[in-house]
Specification:
The chain is mostly beta strands and 116 residues long. The chain has one domain: Sandwich (Jelly Rolls). It contains no helices and six strands. Strands 1, 2, 3, 4, 5 and 6 form a six-stranded antiparallel β-sheet that branches. A hairpin with a 2-residue loop joins strand 3 and strand 4. It is globular and about 45 Å long. The relative contact order is 0.28. The model has no long low-confidence stretch (mean pLDDT 90).
Length: 116
């Protein structure tokens, strides 16, 4: 029998991650998160994550550096960060974006801040 459950998550009540992300709906193989009004600050150190990310910019501007290549992100931009790729973001203007991750980033500490 097919799974007929429905999951609804309101962003205003969604759990918040350590880096400011809000965890939205999540299934077994895919999850969504919201980066809402993230302020510009110092770039975060490059990381490698054990999930693939696709994203879409709602507002603001940022730079994504992926395996040594830097691309500008602005409203309407979408991007992909392949699983295991070294990447970092630099927020240039207050930034709002939606991302989907496969497998879900928040499961099994995949989204934990990098260990120093």
């Amino acid at each position: 029998m097919a799974d007929s459950s429905v999951t609804k998550v309101e962003a205003s009540h969604a759990p918040k991650g350590a880096e400011g992300q809000r965890y939205l709906a999540s299934g077994r193989a895919l999850s969504m998160r919201l980066w809402d009004s993230i302020s510009p600050d110092n770039p975060l150190p490059p990381v490698r994550r054990e999930y693939e990310t696709v994203g879409y910019v709602v507002s603001g501007r940022a730079e994504l550096t992926l395996e040594g290549q830097t691309v500008s992100l602005q409203p309407g931009s979408s991007w992909i960060v392949p699983k295991g790729s070294e990447h970092s973001y630099r927020i240039l203007e207050t930034f709002t974006a939606v991302e989907a991750t496969h497998p879900p980033a928040e499961i099994h500490d995949r989204d934990a801040p990098p260990k120093q």
